[in-house]
Amino acid sequence: MTSPNVKKSWAKLVIVISMIKEFGQDDPRRVIHSFKVGLALVLIYILHHFRPTFYGFGDNIIWAVLTVVIVLELSVGATLGKGFNRMLATGLAGGLGVASNKIATLCGDKGKVVMTSIFVFVIAERVTFMRFSPQLKARYDYGMIIFILTFCLISLSDETGNELLEIAQERLLTIIIGSCIAIMVCIFICPVWIGEDLHRKIAGNIEKLADFLEGFGDEYFNNSENTEAENDKQFLHRYKRVLSSKSMEESMAVLARWEPRHGQFRFRHPWKQYLKIGNLARLCAYKIEALSVYLNNPKTPYEFRSIIQELCTKISLESGKALKESSLMIKKMYKSSSPNSHVSNAKSAVESLKSLLRTNPWEGADNHFEIIPAATVASLLIDIVICVEKICEGVDELASLANFVPYELLHRGIVQPISDSDGSVHVVTVAE
Amino acid sequence: MTSPNVKKSWAKLVIVISMIKEFGQDDPRRVIHSFKVGLALVLIYILHHFRPTFYGFGDNIIWAVLTVVIVLELSVGATLGKGFNRMLATGLAGGLGVASNKIATLCGDKGKVVMTSIFVFVIAERVTFMRFSPQLKARYDYGMIIFILTFCLISLSDETGNELLEIAQERLLTIIIGSCIAIMVCIFICPVWIGEDLHRKIAGNIEKLADFLEGFGDEYFNNSENTEAENDKQFLHRYKRVLSSKSMEESMAVLARWEPRHGQFRFRHPWKQYLKIGNLARLCAYKIEALSVYLNNPKTPYEFRSIIQELCTKISLESGKALKESSLMIKKMYKSSSPNSHVSNAKSAVESLKSLLRTNPWEGADNHFEIIPAATVASLLIDIVICVEKICEGVDELASLANFVPYELLHRGIVQPISDSDGSVHVVTVAE
């Protein structure tokens, strides 16, 4: 017989385990990454055990372990950035440290203490200050910490002359070995490219806006009471995730710049253009946020709302379609003029709406207060079309900058589109 | 005579130096922080030089240096968080490492290799996986890296038994010394409290929204051509910085929770309430972003715009005043009902505006299209008042949660308001 306490704990454990399982299923790449870290460390251990002379410098194995644990990140971009930073900073700071140690040694015993203190202070102070610069921080923050660290370690060392030089060389070599193991494990075992993540994220953000716009018309002009459960209206809330995605997009773009050519992405893929499109999408999301209030606010009576129903629904639907096509253009990496034709449709609907409004369609309304909500919705939709047009222009620009393939060529079967379901690249070769 | 090249380089150098200077003047705390890092390192060097036996374990000085360089951050919260993480993780992982090493040793020579590989793999894999959990990542990410690191170093060590235990203890002690030096330098020399930064940032964000709202009425209803230079209208653009401040506020709140009592801030200051207010302020900023479009769009002719001028200007002005008073309440940390009275004024103006609109004030307009911009502005302003009311409620809640002092007591001179100009706390004791 088990006591109720044991049963309780058991139930709790089961919940925690199922939570962890779900969490891994959310993004299986996390599970794979965890395995990769374990594997890289075991690799170092085995190498060290069977060939203690492999590295040739005994204790320094800790630097290889340190390097792997810290350098190996989920994405290739982050791993390459950190590895590069670590190797370059260790090399530079090692050289400078050996040089400053030599100079300090020339100044006699007391002089050495003073000189070393001055060197350590000046370097640590200057580099720490440089870390605040936003441009340097984005790409080289980790390198600057490692620079201070290595310089201090070399300067503070009790060894001098050739011995010191040897230590510095050994340390650099272990760090290069550690970084290379981390980079190789990251690239060759199920790589996660952060550039692709950014690519998919921007396409996904545009799609979220499109979902709202495609559904808005029906939702706002629907006269019947809402019978659907809130669950079925998820599409009206997805755009909210676009509102606060700025800082994430920016850090992804910084990391993506470290990545080499892979799949459809060149080394100098126009990542900045993604940020530009992301910002335009956010401006559109702010407008949508203002518009969404009118789904719940008291609405203009249906008889007056219905006057603008057809045109407003058309504007909203065509804007949504334009965005969905643009999102697809990014996802599948092809050039197409179809978003522009939807934008033209939306713009001509805007002109028709303006003409309609010039004929005083609400003449019979009881008072102006009643028609204000409908008027605001019309006005916001007209603003949104301008935003949508800019997003489509941004995507067109991206298509030229990144040499996307024209849609017609895509269907002759010579390109390799990127799958949007998971992180891996499928090579699709469609025969005509 | 100097060659033109030398002159050119000299000019460039001067520009770079003046840029660095300006950059330091932007936030003098950066300069102070850089000095603190240099100082802490020199302190360790001097201790190590004059008392090589001070730490009692020779080479391990590198762990103290490593700790100081990595743990000493700009703000007290970040330094305490990292120091705490580092000490706890080293202690736990050290103990676990020694235990697993003992178990592995029991399994014979070959068994040891297999067991150690399994231990390293399982621990590294599990902890890396846990790092993806958002709750753990926010507060303990650094600790989890250090945990993997220390566990691997102890497990991979060639030493066994008592020697290993000694190494682990020494390492832990050096790390505690390093963390304590970093924490003391951070707290006792010109401390930067990130909680205060968050406090000021939230107050500043509300003020930025207030600036826009206070200026909007005049700007929109002004009939004359814009003669002022764009520079003078900075107040109309400041709110834009609120739009994308979410992730920064969140990370500040996480760090602020590490900080001990200081000045007016208790240990368990309601930091979460700041995030709530921040989110409400952002919702208001989205609406303002939608409203700001109408400053530049073609406007309703002045004769019809002027009909709602008085009430709309009042709504916007009173909303702005309510926000400004709320911002001041946060800044000076006092309770006051004055924001609520401004909110009431704004709400009664909204009611008057609604009544006005019910009398069909735009009857004589040529067509409905002309009056749509003015109608939209009125409608958005009505929405904004709801947002403003929620912000003021949030600030009231903060005032109760954080035990702000009633305004009347403040002026009897018994509290210490926080200065908003720089990072230091001024103790103001006003005699009656």
Task: Describe what you observe in this structure.
Two copies of one chain form a homodimer. By secondary structure, chain A is mainly α. Chain A folds into two domains: 25-188; 194-410, Methane Monooxygenase Hydroxylase, Chain G, domain 1 (Up-down Bundle), CATH 1.20.58. The first copy, chain A, has helices at 4-26, 28-50, 61-71, 76-105, 108-130, 134-156, 161-188, 194-221, 240-243, 246-256, 271-296, 302-332, 338-358, 368-401, 407-410, and strands at 334-335, 405-406. The first copy, chain A, has a two-stranded parallel sheet with strand order 1-2. In chain A, helix 2 (28-50) crosses helix 7 (161-188), helix 4 packs antiparallel against helix 5 (108-130) and helix 5 (108-130) runs antiparallel to helix 6. The first copy, chain A, is elongated, with a radius of gyration of 30 Å. At the A-B interface, helix 1, helix 2, helix 3, helix 5 and helix 6 of A face helix 1, helix 2, helix 3, helix 5 and helix 6 of B. Chains A, B: It is a multi-pass membrane protein. Chains A, B: Keywords: Ion channel, Ion transport, Membrane, Transmembrane, Transmembrane helix, Transport.
